[in-house]
Design brief:
The complex is a heterodimer of chains A (273) and B (304). Chain A has 273 residues and is mostly helical. In chain A, 79% of the residues lie in helices and 0% in strands. Chain B starts with a helix and ends with a helix. Chain B has a two-stranded antiparallel ribbon. The chains are: A mainly alpha (273), B mainly alpha (304). Chains A and B meet through helix 1, helix 4, helix 5, helix 6 and helix 7 of A and helix 2, helix 4, helix 5, helix 6 and helix 7 of B.
Chain lengths: 273, 304
C-alpha cells in the first residue's frame, strides 16, 4: 500500500513537472528547428539538424535592441528602487519623526493601488510632462511600483536586527553610516536580494505599462517588440519562439539563482499574513 | 538634503539630538516618498478627477460629473465584461486552489524531491505573461506542427482552435493563467502546512482517523489562514489579469474573453476615450477594494 501510493505520487509529480516545463522545452525545440520541421506532422521534439537562423532573424529585425532596453530599464529601476526603499525602510525602524506612521501607511496604500488604475492618469501626466515615449518613462514608473515593496521588505528585516549591533559597532569606532554599511546591510542581503529579484521580475516581464508609455520602436521593451513582431510576421513561429526563449532566460536564471530568497519571501509573507 | 543623512550626530551649534534625528529620519524617507507620491498616489487621484471629465485623445472637454459612469453602467457590454471578469477570476480560483492544495500536500510528503518539484513548478511564474501567451498560442493553434492538434489527431479527434471558439476561449485562457500562477499558491500552502505541528497527525493516527477525517479535522482548519491568503492574493491578481488575455485572444472571439481589465485597455488606450477609461479603472479599483475588505473580514474572523 505504502509502495503503491509512493509510485503514484512519483508519477503525479513527474506529470506536474512535465506540464510546467514541457511548453518551455517545446519553445526551445521550435526555436532551433528549420522551417520545414517546425510545420512537420506529426511534430518532432528533437530537430534533426539544429539552426540558429531564427535567432539571426530577430537580430536582423533589431529585436535584440529591445532586449537591451528591457535590461537597462529594469536594472536602473530596480537598483534605484532598492536603494531608496532601503533608506526609507531603515528610517522607519531606527528614527522617530513627524507623521511617521501616516507616511508608512501611505507606502502601504501605494502598494495596494493596482497598477492598471495608474496607467491612464500616468500616461496623460507623462504626455504633459514630456516624459511620454522617452527613455526615462519606464525606469521611473517601474521604480515607483517597486519602491513600496522594497520599503516593506527592508523594514521587516531591519526591525528584526537588534540595535545593539549598531551600538557595538559604534563602540568599535564606526560612525553610524559605517555601522549600517558594514554591519547592518550585509545581514540584510536576503531582504535586499528578494526585493531586487521581485522587482526585476516585475519590470522585465511587464507588457502593459511599456506598451502604453512607449511609441518608438527603438525604445521598446522586449515583450512589446515580440507582440509587434508577431503582428508583422504572423506565423513565423520559429522566430517568435526564439524571442520567447531569449525573453525567458534572464527571469528564469534569476529565479533559479535566488529561488531560496524568493520562496522565502513568499512563504514569509504568508506566515506573517 | 541627502548630505544630512550621512551625518552621525548633530553638529555643535545644533539644537537637540532628537530634532536632528527627526530631520535625518525624514531626510531618509523623502526620496522614496517623493517618487511614490508623484508617480503612484497623485496620479491615482488624478485618475478619479479624469473619470469625471470628458477626455478624448488627451484633449479635455471639461467636467461632466458622473456621466462616464452613467454611460458605463447603461451599457450592457460593461455588465458582460464584469460577468466575464468574475468567471475568469472564480474559474481560475476553482482550478488553482484545489490543485495547489493537493500539490502542497504531495510536496510535503516528497521531502527533498518535493522542494525540487516546487522549484520546477515555479519556473512558469518567473516568465512574462506575454511570453506565456505566445508559448501557449503556438501549442494550441491547430496549424501544421501545432502540438495540441497533433496529440488530438493521435486519438482521432478533429483539431479545434480553442482560442477562436467562443465556448472554449474563456476556459482556455483560464487554464493558461492557472498554469502560470498555480505554483505561487502551492508555495504559500506548503509553508502553511509546515506550520501544522506533526504531533497532531501522530495523535490522529493513534485515534485511528482516516485520511479524509485527518484532512477535515486537522489539515483544513489549520491551513485555513494560508488558504485565505492564497484566495485573496489570487482573486486580486486574476481579477486584474489582462496581459495573458491580450496575448492569447485579444478579448475575442466575439468578445468572449473581454474582461473588465481588457475593456479598460481597449476603451482607454485603443479608442483613447480616457475619461471613460478612468471610470472603468475606478470601478475596477472599487471592486478590488470590496474583495480585499471581504477577505480581511474573513481573515480577521478566522483569527478569533
Amino acid at each position: 500500500m505504502r509502495y503503491v501510493t509512493r509510485v503514484l505520487a512519483a508519477i503525479l509529480a513527474l506529470a506536474a513537472a512535465i506540464i510546467a516545463v514541457g511548453p518551455i522545452v517545446w519553445a526551445v525545440s521550435t526555436s532551433i528547428k528549420r522551417n520545414n520541421e517546425i510545420f512537420a506532422v506529426p511534430p518532432k521534439l528533437i530537430p534533426s539538424s539544429a539552426t540558429l537562423e531564427h535567432y539571426a532573424r530577430l537580430i536582423a529585425e533589431g529585436v535584440h535592441w529591445s532586449f537591451v532596453n528591457s535590461a537597462i530599464y529594469s536594472i536602473i529601476a530596480v537598483s534605484s528602487a532598492v536603494a531608496l526603499g532601503t533608506l526609507a525602510g531603515y528610517a522607519f525602524v531606527r528614527f522617530e519623526f513627524r507623521a511617521k506612521n501616516a507616511l508608512l501607511h501611505l507606502f502601504m496604500a501605494a502598494m495596494a493601488i493596482p497598477s492598471y488604475a495608474l496607467l491612464l492618469p500616468t500616461q496623460i501626466l507623462f504626455v504633459e510632462l514630456g516624459l511620454f515615449n522617452t527613455p526615462a518613462a519606464l525606469p521611473i514608473l517601474y521604480a515607483a511600483h517597486v519602491i513600496p515593496f522594497a520599503v516593506w521588505m527592508t523594514r521587516a528585516h531591519f526591525a528584526s536586527v537588534p540595535i545593539e549591533l549598531e551600538h557595538a559597532a559604534a563602540v568599535d569606532g564606526y560612525t553610524r553610516f559605517e555601522a549600517v554599511w558594514r554591519v547592518v546591510l550585509p545581514g540584510a542581503k536576503p531582504a535586499l536580494i528578494a526585493a531586487a529579484a521581485f522587482g526585476f521580475l516585475y519590470a522585465w516581464n511587464d507588457y502593459i505599462t511599456s506598451t502604453t508609455m512607449i511609441d518608438s520602436p527603438e525604445l521598446r521593451t522586449l515583450p512589446v517588440a515580440l507582440i509587434f513582431f508577431q503582428g508583422f510576421h504572423g506565423r513565423d513561429w520559429g522566430a517568435l519562439m526564439a524571442g520567447a526563449v531569449i525573453a525567458t532566460i534572464p527571469p528564469v536564471v534569476l529565479f533559479l539563482a535566488f529561488r531560496r530568497y524568493l520562496i522565502g519571501g513568499f512563504s514569509e509573507g504568508s506566515v506573517k499574513g | 538634503m541627502n548630505a544630512q543623512t550621512t551625518r552621525q550626530r548633530p553638529a555643535a551649534g545644533e539644537s537637540d539630538p532628537a530634532a536632528a534625528a527627526r530631520r535625518a529620519g525624514l531626510a531618509l524617507v523623502v526620496p522614496a516618498l517623493g517618487v511614490v507620491v508623484a508617480v503612484n498616489v497623485l496620479p491615482a487621484f488624478f485618475g478619479f478627477y479624469s473619470s469625471l471629465r470628458a477626455i478624448f485623445f488627451f484633449g479635455d472637454d471639461g467636467f461632466i460629473g458622473w456621466r462616464n459612469y452613467a454611460e458605463l453602467f447603461a451599457d450592457p457590454a460593461t455588465w458582460a465584461a464584469i460577468r466575464r471578469s468574475l468567471v475568469f477570476t472564480f474559474g481560475s480560483l476553482a482550478l488553482a486552489v484545489p490543485l495547489a492544495t493537493l500539490a502542497a500536500m504531495g510536496i510535503r510528503k516528497l521531502g527533498a524531491w518535493g522542494r525540487l518539484l516546487l522549484t520546477v513548478l515555479l519556473v512558469p511564474w518567473a516568465m512574462s505573461p506575454i511570453v506565456v501567451a505566445l508559448l501557449w498560442k503556438w501549442i494550441l493553434l491547430p496549424s501544421p506542427g501545432g502540438l495540441l492538434a497533433s496529440i488530438l489527431a493521435h486519438f482521432g479527434i478533429e483539431p479545434i482552435n480553442l482560442l477562436s471558439h467562443p465556448d472554449f476561449a474563456m476556459p482556455t485562457v483560464i487554464a493558461v493563467g492557472v498554469w502560470r500562477t498555480f505554483a505561487f499558491a502551492a508555495i504559500i500552502l506548503t509553508a502553511g502546512l509546515g506550520q501544522i505541528p506533526a504531533d497532531l497527525y501522530r495523535a490522529a493516527s493513534v485515534d485511528g482517523l482516516t485520511a479524509i477525517e485527518r484532512f477535515r479535522r486537522i489539515t483544513f482548519p489549520l491551513l485555513a489562514p494560508s488558504l485565505l491568503i492564497v484566495l485573496s492574493v489570487l482573486t486580486i491578481s486574476y481579477f486584474n489579469e489582462v496581459q495573458i488575455i491580450i496575448g492569447l485572444t485579444a478579448g475575442g472571439p466575439i468578445h468572449s474573453t473581454t474582461t473588465l481589465g481588457y475593456q479598460l485597455f481597449e476603451v482607454g488606450f485603443v479608442e483613447l476615450n480616457q475619461g471613460k477609461g478612468n471610470a472603468i479603472a475606478i470601478v475596477m479599483f472599487l471592486i478590488n477594494l470590496f474583495l480585499i475588505v471581504g477577505y480581511v473580514r474573513l481573515l480577521g474572523g478566522g483569527r478569533k
